Amino acid sequence: MTAVRETPAPAGDWELLRGAVKGVAKKYSQDRCSAKATAGGRAVVLAVADGHGSAPHFRSDMGARWAVEEFTACAEAFAHEAVRVGADAALWPGLRAEARRLPQAVGHRWQRRALLHDANAPAHGASPARRAAARERFERQGAAGTWDFTAYGSTLIGAVLTRQMLLCWQLGDGDIVVIDDGGVPHTPLSTGPDMGDETDSLCEPEPWRKTRTHWQPITGGPPPAVLLSTDGLSKSFADHQGFLDFATGVRERAAQQGVAAVQKQLEDWLERAARYSGDDTTLVAAFAAEHDGAPEQTAQEGTTPA
Amino acid sequence: MSRTNSVSGSSEAADNFPGGAMASRPVHFIWMLDCSGSMSVNGKIGQLNFAIREAIPEMQQAADANPAASLLVRAISFASGASWHVGEPTPVDSFSWEDVHTYGGTDMGAAFKLVAGALDTPPMPQRALPPVLALASDGQPTDDWRAGLRAIDSTPWGKRAVRVAVAIGDDADKSMLKEFLGNPELEPLQAKNPRQLAAAIRWMSTAVVKDASTPKIEDARPATPVGPPLTKDGEDEIW
User: Fold this and answer.
1) What are the structural domain ranges in chain B?
2) Domain ranges of chain A
């Protein structure tokens, strides 16, 4: 077997962008997000979650926060494994299986946090005796019981990006845009236009069954940009093409002006969007950093990760 | 390349904004008004016209308070058959009211079928907030209203619509109106005098509009907001 000579993994494999604004006339935002480098800078984990916000989902800001935190925790472990596997295609089936299991792991962890919270502070109120009974039931049944998570409902979109692969997961509405080398935007997990504001949610039974997954091996270098956003962004545009133009425009500006310059303007852009959608609006993105020097060594088939 | 944001009117060069034109989402509000002969008894039709006309400024204020939605209003009248009284989706800012008049039976099913045609996609865009169907009636339907209701329910926006109904007087078919609402927890509003009718119409024009115009997650059929307390002890029951 041929050993892989990995290019040293600088922290700057990707540059990250993150922005979030509150919806017009809302008291607080129910969106949460995260964008972080991991595995020594050789992988990126992105996540956005959109708490539903309406009265029945009055704790959805917490649900969104837990969604991002639990996804990030699971995805970081996955990213380390993905970096370890690298370009060794023989190990990809196992990695894919792990990718398929990830939504369930995230869902269980999210449910556990919601259950713990609800047992201690029941969403619909309870006497001390009922609270104690709920806690006892939780200890006995855990996530296997029949529980009502409505108060915590949230969507979840996440991605892991390494030099060899892009993994995306999506439950509910929102958007993932992957921009290729030619500057063309792709929406790998899009299911077409939404009607109104209906969405799948973590608060439904077995939400992992509704989670869509996208696996994309990378052969010619990482995509120039991967953008994740809550639906408040895409719904602010008069049509879908306008949203895609936004994604490619952000990438163009990041390339021309630098990510730091885009970061400074991002909040203004999102605030403008929120005025039209009326919704919380959140965007995270990773841009492939350009490095000077020799091109990266590509891994060969059948190699063992270093 | 990015385009000028035509809605805000600001140029790309001025603000460096990427992306296409932005626009708030439309909310289609459709009145369905009973114009049967019985509505001419005790001035009901006149009071209904008055209440709708008087509610327009408040409807406009409710729309102004939510710039993330564009409120478009239409109206159907039904009696012997049904027809568009205001057929063009009209921005609420330029909406004015011309009186409807009584002329026959209570063909509510025909009105439902007419509105179902408007709720199909197209003509209704997919990019929209849930429409509002506001029904006012004082009697028993005289045609196959269930077929009409099925037609509404079979459209993508019909099953997502916010539905409100007011029963005018004691002869209104409240169980039928309740079925129209499609939610066993909801009751139609009851108006037994002009004051109650005005309050019901005002609530439909404001609270319901506000609710429908607010982006939020709808788990199944949108919940119609809880109505105003309309019945007050000691009030005259004219109808």
Assistant:
1) 31-128+155-212
2) 12-288
Sheet holding A43-50, edge to edge: A31-38, A43-50, A156-162, A165-171, A212-217
Label residue B239 by pLDDT band (50, 70, 90). confident
Least confident piece of the model among A178-187, A238-247, A289-298, B8-17: A289-298
A30 touches chain B (CB under 8 A): no
- What number does CATH give the domain A12-288? 3.60.40.10
According to the model, what pLDDT value does residue A4 have? 34
With CB atoms and an 8 Å threshold, state whether B20 touches A53.
no
| Whole-angstrom distance, CA of residue A210 vs CA of residue A107 | 11
Q: How far is B223 from chain A (nearest CA, A)?
A: 11
- Chain A and chain B share a number of CB contacts under 8 A equal to 124
Q: Are strands A31-38 and A43-50 parallel, antiparallel or unpaired?
A: antiparallel
Q: Using alpha carbons, select from A126, A283, A251, A86 the residue that is nearest to residue A185.
A: A251
Residue A206 Rama label (left phi>0; alpha psi -120 to 50; beta) = left
B66 inside 8 A of chain A by CB: yes
Q: How far apart are the first and last CA of chain B?
A: 63
Chain B residues in contact with A268 by the CB 8 A cut-off are: 15
Window 123-142 of A, Cβ < 8 Å to B: none
Amino acid at B2: S
Query: Is A304 a residue whose pLDDT tops 90?
Result: no
Q: Is A124 exposed, middle or buried (0-12, 13-18, 19+ CB in 10 A)?
A: exposed
Query: What confidence score (pLDDT) does residue B188 get?
Result: 94
Mean pLDDT along residues B176-189: 93
Query: Cβ-count burial of B220 within 10 angstroms (0-12 exposed, 13-18 middle, 19+ buried)?
Result: exposed
pTM: 0.85
Q: Which CATH class is domain B31-128+155-212?
A: alpha beta
Are the beta carbons of B7 and A268 separated by less than 8 Å? Answer: no
CB contact under 8 A, B19 and A53: no
CA A281 from centroid of its chain's CA atoms: 14
Q: Which of B16, B71, B121, B217 to mutate against chain A (most A CBs within 10 Å)?
A: B217
For residue A206, which amino acid is it?
E
Write a three-state SS string for B103-149.
CECCCHHHHHHHHHHHHCCCCCCCCCCCCEEEEEECCCCCCCHHHHH
